[in-house]
Each structure stands twice: as C-alpha cells, then as structure tokens.
User: Fold this.
Amino acid sequence: MSVPRFYVSPLLTAGELPDDQAHHARDVLRLDNGQPVIMFDGCGQSAPASIRIEKKHVFFALTGPVTIDAAPAYTLTIASAIPKADRAHQLVEQISQLGATGLIWLDCRYSVVRPSAEAKKMEKWVRLAVESAKQCGISRILAIQPPQTPRQLLESTEMGTIIWTHVDATQDLAQRLARWQAERAPKRSDDAGSNITVMIGPEGGWSLEEQELLSRHAVPVRLGRNILRIETAAAAAAAITQSVLGNGENPQSGSF
Assistant:
C-alpha cells in the first residue's frame, strides 16, 4: 500500500492540515495517530511526516528531510476551449496525471461554454489538480491560469513554442515535438524557450479569424486522423508530449 500524501503550502516542519486534507485523512482514509504520511507543497518539495488526530483537527510533524524535485526540463501548458459539464473536470485530472504543468481555458469565437474566472469554479479546478497530484505521486500541482482569448495568449511572452491543433494539419504533434527537441539547444527550465503551449479549439472549430491569427504565430499540428472531443484531445496532447520528450525532469534534485 502506498504512503498517503497530503498537500500543505507552505511546507512547515509542523502544523495543521487544511480542512479538506484533514477530512481525507480522518474520515476517508481513517488514518491512526502516528501513521507515516508524505507532505508536499505543490511546488516540488515533499517530506515524510507523521500525523496526530484530535477530534476534527489533524496535525502533522515532519520526520525526515525535505526533498526538492528536479525542475522540469520543459513546461507544457494546455490552452483549451472548455468542454461541457463534468468533462472539464476530467480534462483537469487527465492532463495533470499525464505531466502537463499548466492549463489556460480559452474563450474562442465558437466556444459553446464560456470560461469564467468565477472563484468557485477556479477553486474546484484547483482542488481537482491537488487531488490528482496526490493520487499520481507528483509534487508539482498543475497551474491553472485565468481564461484568455487566443489573441491574448499569443501576445504573451511566456508561452514559448506555441502549437495549435487543426484537423487539416499535415504535421503530427509527435513530429513537431521531435523537431523542436532536435533543434533546441540545451536551455534552463526557466528559459522561455523551454515552454511549450498546445492550443485546442472548441468543438465548433476555430473561426477563420482565429485560424488566420494562429497561422501567423504558431505551428498547426494534428493529433491523429480522428476528430477528438476537447478533453480527449487535451489528454492526447499531454500523452504525446510525454512520450516524445520524456517526463520532463532534469537529473538534478536535492534535499535539506
């Protein structure tokens, strides 16, 4: 059985679990006092710890050194039109598990669902990202940014290499990534050249204006011969990227 993991930020030597994490430890997993767990802060730091339960409160104390995960050799941001209903939740969970580091909801001309920065929705998506990180054993949480239009995203200087998906593209995503990797000189992970952004349009497709805009600033690719749902396309893009480029970890890591 894997050691239970809990998210707390900042990662202190001792403290109290947030209410949602305490509920999971106390009522879902039914952990005992002194049980070994792992604490992580969502930014790459984790450490072994033990817990103490006092009624509705759950406290933790680190029992070993803090380990710092290596910074990723590249970052992958999925910029996607938002799918309907719970399919947006599936998208968040799937791309997090498949190694994406960021998510931006796109507000496109033919979007059926308009993305919103409404606090409750953003909080829900962040909670899903946290739970996904806990489940798959990663210490960095998917960063979910406020919604943007395609034009706003393209005007950003932090998106790095931008790729957009189009069913009529002649180049596969895997081919484009392999070329990117071959042409790219070794860079630090905090260099904008290490950032990859894959843009996924709405089920109604990109508008002609959006296609013209994207063609001037980004490379069109296809994810295969089939037309995919938004959340499937996002997961496929993350999986293909991990397959071609690896898990994105630099070899250095440390502890203190």
Notes: The chain has a mean pLDDT of 87. Helices lie at 19-28, 87-97, 119-136, 150-154, 173-183, 208-217, 230-245.
